[in-house]
Amino acid sequence: MQTSKKRTAFRAAFWVLATPALFAACLCLCSCGNLGRKKNSLKIVNWNAQTFFDGNNDGIEYPNFVKSKKWNQDAYKDRLQKLCKAIGKMDGDLVILEEIENIGIVHDISNALAGDNWNPGKVYRYACFAKKQGASIGCAVLSRLPLQDLKVHCLDIQAEPSQAPSMRPLIEVDLLAPKRLKIFVNHWKSKSGGGDSCVWRRWQESLLAQKILEAQTDDSGAAILCAGDFNQDISEFALAQADSGQDSVPQVELRSPFCGQKVLARSPWLDCNSELGSYNFRDKWERIDHFFACGDLTLQDFAPQTGEWSYEDGRPKPFKIHSLNGWSDHLPIACRAEW
After folding, report:
1. Contacts of 291 (CB under 8 A, 6+ apart)
2. What is the pLDDT of residues 292-331, one digit of tens each?
């Protein structure tokens, strides 16, 4: 397995949506929020926004958007407003999004949310985005705290008998607080299209495990959060008991066979009493969107999020291009992270 961070391989962006003066103000506001606390505390939201394209036809959109006579700039603005309203209601300090077309949409989200908010501590001034060159969609992170040291990791698989499909990169970025939080954003290969898709998800799992191990080598007590759409139910991960034996809840075992090691990560799904999952396929709930915690990080108050974007029974309202109704075919998930 090889990883690549070549600029030619990815279209990635990392920026601060603020002037230096506002940057200083943000650090002051966020630090004041933690005075007297032994730990940092943030609310984190993850949401697969379901094929969130802008109103332009760049030739990389999915066919149903290209062919649609209804999809245009006005339709995009309406959908953007609905997404931002939902994000505002969930009020996450860190918002992780999958299936975003480009960095322009991330700017639009941040600007729209800032325009509806008079509290400077609630503005998302920091963001990063990455996707593979020529890909339709990528992943984004919006944050009220500074982000730093963006890295984008790609798999170059030559060891399988079949050709590897196009797979989305793994994003690594640090959130700056009195103690750093390292974040890995994932969007693993889906099960659609037939074939043995689990093979490719195993490779993506190996890449994630390898990068976690590298981070732990640099700092054994690092606070690490893995988030995203893994396209894999929690029941499909290997589970193991922590070596300490202190926790009654099993942990997820992320495996990296290339270095003969594994990583134990805590999943709030394993201790969640909700009857909901994050995705509903043929009236069956699946828990395929995840937070995993490693090191000095605890996740509390975890739950799938319901609201205008869900039906009364909790199922998500998918976006329909023919009617322009709905939000996403995934529910957002949220938790409070402490480290």
Report:
1. 44, 46, 225, 226, 227, 267, 268, 299, 302, 333, 335
2. 999 999 999 999 999 999 999 999 999 999 999 999 999 9
